[in-house]
Design a protein that fits this description.
By secondary structure, the protein is an alpha/beta fold. It is built from 14 helices and eight strands. It has a single domain, classed as TIM Barrel (Alpha-Beta Barrel), CATH 3.20.20. The protein has an eight-stranded parallel β-sheet with strand order 7-6-5-4-3-2-1-8.
Length: 311
């Protein structure tokens, strides 16, 4: 078994006010603080990191930033350095598709941010993803492998390192990838991780999907086994279907939609993660009871699978 800890993260982008951020943190704390076996992260705008840290102090919900600069200090107006973030949060998103699309982010700058974040004890969530033009031209694999290699060049990673597959064409468009699309991309990324770091670290890596995720389609991504990534060749020793290597590794990069959507999505993701992690019947029942979601809300098939989890 890979022993990967599922992680569910929420990127709030450029939304909320100080008051709204505090209220949302309180809502999340009330609903999901007690849920175990899943790592939970929220990534508010820079100016609300302190608010989030205060509201979520001594809870199981961790705080992350949405970007970081590679210099420690200097005349870089508008930038935020790793030492500034180190006292405020644990995680940081690096290379998000919107940074690549609107702000000139490149594989080189992703690499510099990644190295700087790790040097100061921050835990990166490194994002990669192709544009619609690149996918239509049949270049998805080429782009993803280039971004993974470029971002990780010269970087030593530890078990549990987090990557995110975020196709540019699916971010904020309302048009998500399909489960098989995400499966193929995630499998390619894990294969490349194996070529760079070996099978053990590749299996331990946690790979997320993000892009137009909603309460209605989350099951397509969370409830599917991660296969040998479609037509891509499997690396030595990989099984045809590894029941501990599930699509998204039980992970999801959530998009901020409205006041209640983050809590609703996280609740649903956690419910589906129970199925994926093959927990014991009692723990599954306990978490299902704690999570305020009825079976009818996310499909009886998932409920049936949860209730079949006894060894």
């Amino acid at each position: 078994m890979s022993g990967r800890m599922p992680i569910v993260a929420g990127n709030w982008k450029m939304y909320t006010t100080a008051r709204a951020a505090a209220e949302l943190c309180r809502l999340l704390r009330e609903r999901i603080d007690g849920l175990a076996a899943v790592e939970k992260v929220v990534c508010p705008p820079f100016v609300f990191l302190t608010v989030a840290g205060q509201e979520l102090a001594d809870s199981s919900i961790k705080v992350g930033a949405q970007n970081v600069y590679w210099e420690e200090e200097g005349a870089y107006t508008g930038e935020v350095s790793p030492p500034m973030l180190a006292d405020l949060c644990e995680y940081v998103i690096i290379g998000h598709s919107e940074r690549r699309k609107y702000f000139g982010e490149t594989d080189e700058t992703v690499n510099r941010r990644l190295k700087a974040a790790l040097a100061h004890g921050l835990r990166p969530i490194m994002c990669v993803g192709e544009t619609l033009e690149e996918r239509q031209a049949g270049r998805m694999e080429e782009v993803l492998l280039r971004q993974v290699r470029g971002g990780l060049a010269g970087v030593d990673i530890a078990a549990g390192f987090v990557l995110a597959y975020e196709p540019v064409w699916a971010i904020g468009t309302g048009v998500p990838a399909t489960g098989p699309m995400a499966d193929e991309a995630i499998g390619l990324m894990r294969q490349e991780m194996a070529s760079l770091y070996g099978r053990e670290l590749a299996e331990a890596a946690r790979i997320q999907y993000g892009g137009s995720v909603t309460p209605d389609n989350i099951g397509e991504f969370m409830g599917v086994f991660e296969s040998t990534h479609g037509s891509a060749p499997k690396y030595a020793g990989q099984d045809k279907v590894n029941p501990t290597s599930l699509i998204l590794s039980g992970v999801l990069m959530l998009q901020y939609i409205d006041w209640t959507a983050p809590a609703q999505l996280i609740e649903r993701a956690i419910a589906l993660t129970i199925q994926q992690k093959r927990m014991t019947y009692d723990l599954a029942r306990q978490m299902k009871d704690v999570t305020p979601i009825k079976c009818s809300e996310y499909g009886n098939a998932v409920c049936e699978n949860i209730l079949k989890l006894s060894p």
